[in-house]
Amino acid sequence: MNKIILVGRLVADPDLKFAAGSGTGIAKFKIAVNRFKKEDGADFINCIAFGKTGETISQYFTKGKQIAVVGRLKLGNYDDKDGVKKYTTDVIIESFDFIGQAEKGESKPSKGNEEIEPVDDGDMPF
Question: Model-level pTM?
Answer without folding.
Answer: 0.77
